[in-house]
Specification:
CATH class: Mainly Beta
Number of domains: 1
Number of strands: 9
Shape: globular
Order of helices and strands: EEEHEEEEHEEH
CATH topology: Pdz3 Domain
């Protein structure tokens, strides 16, 4: 994917420098991940981070997590398996994150609480909550080995 910084100045003159960045996949971990920054956080977003946002496929599944400090983090998963284990009680806490998994690369940590899937609050009933998660994740592609 190629991105150009054609809007670097307000004058837009032809002699303005053009910034070109080429994003290469990590040769070891070829896992597409998008971390969404909540709107109330400062946005010192780099060009590379904006490129990841622009490259994110529209078929991802957004999980909202409540962190131990009570802040909220949205993570968009675009492949399965997710690579995280969680409690079989409500609320659902992440208990483990598999190394080099989709969840690990996205920065998911143990003790985070899964609160929403695709913007919908998880039901208070464990069976219903698991059903919502499984329905959402089922639509994600599995990477080819």
């Amino acid at each position: 994917m190629m991105l150009c910084g054609c809007c670097q100045s307000q004058q837009g003159q032809a002699d303005d420098p053009v910034v070109t960045t080429r994003l290469e996949p990590d040769p070891v971990l070829q896992i597409p991940v998008l971390t969404v920054t909540p709107p109330d956080e400062p946005s010192g977003t780099s060009l590379a981070a904006k490129a990841v946002d622009a490259a994110a496929p529209s078929h991802g599944i957004t999980f909202s997590f409540e962190l131990p400090d009570k802040s909220v983090r949205d993570i968009v998963f675009v492949e399965r398996p997710l690579g995280m284990d969680f409690t079989s009680t409500m609320p659902m806490f992440v208990t483990a994150v598999k190394p080099q998994s989709h969840a690990d690369v996205a920065g998911v940590k143990p003790r985070w609480i899964i609160t929403h899937v695709q913007g919908a609050r998880l039901p208070a009933d464990l069976t219903a909550a698991m059903g919502e998660i499984l329905r959402a994740v089922k639509s994600l592609p599995v990477p080819k080995a």
